Amino acid sequence: MPFKSFRRLKIPDVILIEAERFNDARGFFSELYKRTDYQAHGVFHDFVQANLSYSRRGVVRGLHYQLKPMEQGKLVTVVSGKVLDVALDVRRGSPWYGSHVAVELSPGLLLWIPPGFAHGFQALEDTYFLYLVTKEYSQQHERCVRWDDEELGIEWPIKENVIVSDKDKKCPPLREAETNFEYPI
Fold it and tell me: Which domain holds residue 106?
């Protein structure tokens, strides 16, 4: 089995995955995605686009999502470095609407974030971050929620010298954000 675990989090649609690591004298090998294993754990999405970002320590990216019909599920992981990764439920009618899960990701840990969630992270050290997404990026469908919306109660570990893009600084709080997701999706 190439995965140690698939663990549903406080919001059970979000899944933390730990990849098995096969070490030898050369280094290591890990499978990050295998369709049959993911489907066996309830993830029935395929990926159409891969994105890689580099973020310096303290950078916050997010909280981003795309509206229907271009809603994205995301499988995210760290290639090197470490982040606090956040998934925020923006599905109206969900028992978890406005709630979030936050997990620390390092190489070998992956997070499945289904459509209907805003996603963001803070780099806890200089980090290369890999995203596999279920639908292509669509600027006209892209929306966001303000990363530091006090009503969300997200505890970002780095509070001093946080680096946020001008675009992300303009995101509205959740109560003003546009969403067209209904629970269940």
Answer: 3-176
Q: Is 79 part of a structural domain of the chain?
A: yes
Active site residue 54: no
Tokens of 115: 């459509």
The active-site residue out of 65, 100, 119, 131 is 131
Active site (annotated) includes residue 97: no
In a domain, 184, yes or no: no
Domains held by the chain: number: 1
Sign of the alpha-carbon dihedral angle for 173, 170, 122, 65: positive
pLDDT at 57: 98
pLDDT of 1 over the 90 cut: no
* C-alpha Rg value of the chain to the nearest Å: 16
Contact by Cβ (8 Å): 144, 118 = yes
pLDDT averaged over the chain? 97
Please pick, among 64, 65, 100, 119, the residue that the annotation labels catalytic: 64
Distance CA 147, CA 158 (A): 13
pTM score of the predicted model: 0.96
Can you give the pLDDT at residue 119?
98
Distance CA 58, CA 50 (A): 23
CATH of the domain at 87: 2.60.120.10
Q: Which residues contact 170 (CB under 8 A, 6 or more apart)?
A: none
CB 53 within 8 A of CB 61: yes
